[in-house]
Structures are given as structure tokens and as C-alpha cells.
Design goal:
two-stranded antiparallel sheet; 7 helices; Four Helix Bundle (Hemerythrin (Met), subunit A); globular; mainly alpha
């Protein structure tokens, strides 16, 4: 689905900066993800960074990453930045992009799975940024790669797309790439808590 291998590092670094800025009193606050507070979103990021690293290494975890505030690891402030770095390192290996990869019970060509990993980090980073009122740096090339993937994925596998995202939120064709990506993933770009 993609012919280039995007670099996950800029977006992973941006999300690490967000994690450092989350205050404890924000953990119960709402996020753009329905019925998921900030603590649940952080738990999901902990799980998905591990799952997609293992997908790159071709040693997948069974099941999908949870999003449970009650299950958020006590060391999330240290764990998430470390796991984001490990995710980047795993997807820098050329072997990560070869063959197939499995994450969350879904098997895809590894080239597509790498873009899904990037998309998860980028979009959930936006979720975390708006939920906690922080500025968010988005790598333009990463956002464009994710938008291409989500549009192609929706056209090629509408049932699978429906299981991953909420309904498409209409966004003007001339809107910024990030806004169009957010709309494709079921998010309203103007959402605020």
C-alpha cells in the first residue's frame, strides 16, 4: 500500500514530549476517543507501542492493546518514552518492512503495518495533545503517508476500516493534511474538551 518507508522518529519524539507534559490531575479528563479518559489513552499508547514494535520484530503479541484507565502502568511516564524509542528502532530495520506483520490480531503486509503503527502514534498523539491542551508538532510527511493509507484502506477494506475508526467526519478537501487525516479516522479536528 506504500512504496516508501516512513520514519516514525519525528512523531514518536513529539508524543514523548506530550507524555512529559501530562499532569496527574488530567488523567480522568476526556479525550476525542469516546469513553476513554486521558489515563485510558495513555494505557492504549503503552500497549500499542509494544504491539507494533513486536510486529516489526515479527514476534507479535496476541490480542489488541487495551485502553483502560484502571490498567495504566504506574511507570507510564518512563515507560512510554522508552517504548516509543524502541518502536522507532524496530521499524528502522529493513527486515521490519518485509513480508507480513501481525498486530492486534490483524495481519497485513509489513509495509502497510509500519504505516499503521505511524498512524496510531500520530493520531493518538493528537488525541493526547488536545485532551491535555498541549501544542503538537506533526511531521508533514508522516501525516501525508497516514492520510494516503487511511484513504486507500477505507476504499479497499471498508468493513475493516469500520472496526478501526469511527464514522468519517467530513472535512473540506482543501483543509490541512492533519485535519483530513483526523476526519478519515473519525475525529472532528475542532474537538476540544
Amino acid at each position: 500500500m506504500t512504496t516508501t518507508t516512513p520514519d516514525l522518529a519525528p512523531q514518536a519524539a513529539a508524543v514523548s514530549r506530550l507524555v512529559a507534559g501530562v499532569r496527574d490531575d488530567q488523567l480522568p479528563d476526556p479525550t476525542p476517543c469516546a469513553d476513554t479518559p486521558v489515563a485510558g489513552l495513555l494505557d492504549h499508547l503503552v500497549g500499542l507501542t509494544l504491539a507494533f514494535r513486536l510486529a516489526a520484530e515479527k514476534s507479535p503479541l496476541p490480542g489488541a492493546a487495551s485502553a483502560s484507565a484502571a490498567d495504566l502502568a504506574p511507570d507510564w511516564r518512563e515507560r512510554l518514552p522508552r517504548q516509543l524509542q524502541e518502536l522507532v528502532a524496530a521499524w528502522r530495520s529493513p527486515a521490519a518492512w518485509e513480508g507480513n506483520a501481525l498486530a492486534g490480531g490483524v495481519q497485513l503486509p509489513a509495509a502497510a503495518m509500519g504505516v499503521v503503527a505511524l498512524n496510531e502514534v500520530l493520531v493518538h498523539g493528537w488525541d493526547l495533545a488536545v485532551a491535555t491542551g498541549q501544542p503538537y508538532d506533526v511531521d508533514g510527511a508522516a501525516a501525508a503517508a497516514c492520510l494516503r493509507f487511511t484513504v486507500d484502506f477505507a476504499a479497499g477494506a471498508p468493513e475493516a476500516r469500520a472496526g478501526m475508526y469511527g464514522p468519517v467526519v467530513p472535512v473540506p478537501d482543501d483543509a490541512p493534511v492533519l485535519d483530513r487525516l483526523l476526519g478519515q479516522t473519525g475525529r472532528n479536528p475542532s474537538w476540544r474538551p
